[in-house]
Design a protein that fits this description.
It is a single chain. The chain is of the alpha/beta class and 478 residues long. It folds into two domains: 271 residues, 3-Layer(aba) Sandwich (Aldehyde Dehydrogenase, Chain A, domain 1); 182 residues, Aldehyde Dehydrogenase, Chain A, domain 2. The chain is built from 14 helices and 25 strands. The strands form seven sheets. It has a seven-stranded mixed sheet, sandwiched between helices. A six-stranded mixed sheet has the order 10-9-8-11-12-24, sandwiched between helices. It has a three-stranded mixed sheet with strand order 1-5-4, covered by helices on one side. Strand 9, helix 6 and strand 10 form a beta-alpha-beta unit. Helix 1 crosses helix 7 and helix 3 crosses helix 4. The longest helix is centred in the first third of the chain and has 21 residues. The relative contact order is 0.14.
């Protein structure tokens, strides 16, 4: 089996070891073998990025725009093959995987245009005869650390703005999903990125990630992943005065009011809680339902869950693929048992499924009669597990929705303009959805949350410039 190599200073480089990329729907299927880097190779990638930065940061915006457009076009042209690879290594259904690849291509194309619109300001000084200008410049070398659940879209929304604004990149993907990252790196190289501007380093977080975070030559770290890891990264980065951007966990509520359209409420809950196997930081794992519609909602949810097919993500008709690996599946099953012990009533699913292939399949789980203090409603499970909390009325539902240390996404299903408007203003979340699932946002608007979910500047859209650039004020004698 050919070993897929790291990409450093414009060259494909062997690592100090290798890892196997295993299909979670069929553990006998080894997708490929990938090189793993050590600290020294990571430092070499950082040195390459640092060496390329002076030239790249001063390169013309037309050159950068054209590069990003080529990358986006190549991604879109290979959408089917890349989607199949993504579905094999991460486990989301093929339509979802192809959709994610399409989003990655659109992100690069978006930033190919956005880089042409990097505006500044010219203002008169309060001192006579002086003129003040405010401009943005590239931050420097950026370390990008991405998770396994969106193995091409999240790298895209970090890499594209970093390159667009003149930064150089050292990219470390999650160990579980090196395939999509490597395929993206191949496209970036094929599109003609200058040597050193973009570098791919695959390997364990405790080696590659720690080296990136603690190297003084890295000016910024953008991380998406777990809360504990994010906090450790923040402490290390801030300790050496590096810029840091974190996207972490969520325990997102979907409020269903008495006046909700029942079909809309069920589809929002099913999509938000269970699609992508619930492995989304924006998943609506807390379903907060008012008394007047509660029983009808539960009955309709169970009926809808019975129609969902759990299976191989490449098979036609599969709605829910496998959990990403054995460790994550074991954690999901532990949370199901915890919820039972604490008094939750499991009304559907929750167990491991044995299918034709040896994979990490779990039937989606729905709990009712849960209370806010239960661990199932406090901690992020990151699997196809949702719990229902009964609310007295809208005011109580809003209180329950905000009763969490997280604040990424929040949704409401209602036909009341009054309640929808109030919820948009008072939900303590970075993103609020009305009559649509909590999971799923556009690529041209800011992504991020509040409280324990996010730290630092927003990602995506024009707001990405806040992290990837630094502001300069200059005075000129008129």
């Amino acid at each position: 089996m050919t070993i897929k190599k790291n990409y450093i200073a414009g060259e494909w480089v062997e690592g100090c070891g290798t890892s196997h990329n295993i299909n979670p729907a069929d553990t006998s299927d080894v997708i490929a073998e990938y090189a793993t880097a050590d600290a020294e190779q990571t430092k070499a990638a950082i040195a390459a990025a640092r060496g390329a930065f002076p030239s790249w940061s001063l390169s013309g915006i037309q050159l950068r725009s054209e590069l990003l457009d080529r990358i986006g076009q190549l991604i879109l042209e290979r959408k089917q093959a890349l989607g199949e690879l993504l579905a094999r290594e991460e486990g989301k259904s093929l339509p979802e995987a192809i959709g994610e690849v399409g989003r990655a291509g659109q992100i690069f194309k978006y930033f190919s245009g956005e880089v042409l619109q990097l505006r500044g300001e010219i203002q008169p000084s309060v001192r006579p005869g002086l003129e003040a200008s405010v401009t943005r410049e590239a931050l420097g070398v950026i370390g990008l650390i991405t998770p396994w659940n969106f193995p091409i879209a999240i790298p895209a929304w970090k890499i594209a703005p970093a390159l667009a604004y003149g930064n150089c990149v050292v990219f470390k993907p999650a160990e579980l999903v090196p395939g999509s990252a490597h395929a993206l790196a191949e496209i970036i190289a094929e599109a003609g990125v200058p040597a050193g501007v973009f570098n791919l380093i695959m390997g364990p977080g405790r080696v590659v990630g720690d080296t990136l975070v603690n190297d003084a030559r890295v000016d910024g770290i953008s991380f998406t992943g777990s809360v504990n890891t994010g906090r450790n990264i923040a402490a290390a980065a801030v300790g050496r005065m590096a810029k840091v951007q974190l996207e972490m966990g969520g325990k997102n509520p979907l409020v269903v009011l008495d006046d909700a359209d029942l079909d809309t409420a069920v589809e929002c809950a099913i999509n938000g809680a269970f699609f992508s196997t619930g492995q989304r930081c924006t998943a609506s794992s807390r379903l907060i339902v008012t008394e007047g519609i509660h029983d009808r909602f539960i009955e309709a949810m169970i009926d809808r869950l019975k129609t969902l097919k759990v299976g191989n993500p490449l098979d036609a008709g599969t709605h829910i693929g496998p959990v990403v690996d054995e460790r994550q599946l074991r954690q999901n099953l532990e949370y199901v048992e915890i919820a039972k012990t604490e008094g939750g009533n499991l009304v559907f699913g929750g167990g491991r499924l044995q299918l034709e292939t040896d994979g990490f399949f779990q039937q989606p789980a729905l709990f009712i009669n849960t209370t806010p203090e239960m661990r199932i409603n406090r901690e992020e499970v990151f699997g196809p597990v949702a719990s229902v909390i009964r609310a007295r009325d809208y005011a109580h539902a809003l209180e329950l929705a905000n009763d969490t240390e997280f604040g990424l996404s929040a949704g409401i299903v209602t036909q009341s303009l009054k309640y929808a408007t109030h919820f948009k203003r008072h939900a303590q979340a970075g993103m609020v959805m009305v009559n649509v699932p909590t999971a799923g946002v556009d690529y041209h608007v800011p992504f991020g949350g509040r409280k324990g979910s996010s730290y630092g500047a927003r990602e995506q859209g024009s707001y990405a410039r806040e992290f990837y650039t630094t502001v300069k004020t200059a005075y000129t004698l008129a």
